[in-house]
Amino acid sequence: MFIGAVKWFDNNKGFGTLALPSGEELFVHIRRFKIPPEHIIQPAEVIVGDKKSDPKRNGYLAHNCKILKRPEDWKFVISLFEKDHIVLIPDNHGHEQKHNLTSLAARQLLRAQGKDNVVSMLTSHFDFRFNSSIFLAYAELLDKSISGIFEKEIASELLAQVFTYFGNHVSHQILFRVWKERMFRYIGYPADGDYEIPEEVLNLNATEINYDDLIRIRAYSFGKSFCNDFVEALFDDLDTMDKQDIEPLIPYIDFLENEDSIEKINLIMQ
């Protein structure tokens, strides 16, 4: 299967070419669509389909094509976040311009649904199994795409509904990533300042916590005890560590509440 964008298409003759992220171009004919398009095909429209061997061109042509427009097609947008997908589409002067295929697909589908079905389309593809590594980029895409398509008031309402849903169905991995980047609005938390996420979430993601994070956590209701336990765990193998291993950890002593632990570390470092 491929996903690409229309590079050019002659609607009178019924054929054109598609630009793929790989740099490959596919010939496409109107007869190769599963369902004939109901509108004039425009450059930059995103199309999915299969590649079929074409001996005449010593390559491939597009087959079983469809233009992305149904709510269930949103899964293609999500799949594009695995890596950057750039396609080259000529502008009105014939100069090829770079376009992000993910952004093209997202805006195309959002326009196709209209404001009444946007929320249901976006929330139906989000649950606790959503890939946490792409969440921030995904939320940013929604923010920019919806704001760029709908009027300001409508866009704000749609984003509030979608982000609130995300917050109510967020996994601990995503919540931690949101916390690290302070992008709380992506989970429907619009207030200024910090957001005290549950201690359990911090424990589950402890390997990604650094010194600056601890400074922030220390102000939380459970902060002092969490920071002390965290730092004691860092020095858990103190008896088997040499000075070279200990030196990078010395700043963390500031978070220790246990005087015995502090004294023991200082003695080893002398």
Structural class: alpha+beta
State Rg.
26 Å
Instruction: Please give the largest β-sheet.
Output: 5 strands, antiparallel
Q: How do the helices and strands follow one another from N- to C-terminus?
A: EEEEEHEEHHHHHHHHHH
Structure annotation, total helices: 11
How much strand? 15-25%
- Number of domains as seen in the coordinates: 3
Task: Examine the coordinates and then state which fold CATH places here, giving the name of the CATH topology of the largest domain.
Answer: OB fold (Dihydrolipoamide Acetyltransferase, E2P)
The CATH class of the largest domain turns out to be Mainly Beta
Straight-line distance between termini = 64 Å
Determine the fraction of residues in helical runs and give it as a percent range.
25-40%
The overall pLDDT average reads 90
Uncertain residue ranges: none
Strand order of the largest sheet: 3-2-1-4-5
Q: What would you give as the CATH superfamily of the largest domain?
A: Nucleic acid-binding proteins
State the shape: elongated
Q: How many DSSP E strands? A: 7
Q: At CATH's second level, what is the architecture of the largest domain?
A: Beta Barrel
In short:
InterPro entries: NA-bd_OB-fold. By secondary structure, the chain is of the alpha+beta class.
Description:
The chain has three domains: 1-88 and 105-110, OB fold (Dihydrolipoamide Acetyltransferase, E2P) (Beta Barrel), CATH 2.40.50.140; 113-195, no CATH class; 208-269, no CATH class. It is built from eleven helices and seven strands. The longest helix is centred in the middle third of the chain and has 17 residues, at 152-168. With 270 residues, it is of the alpha+beta class. It has a five-stranded antiparallel beta sheet. A two-stranded antiparallel ribbon has the order 6-7.
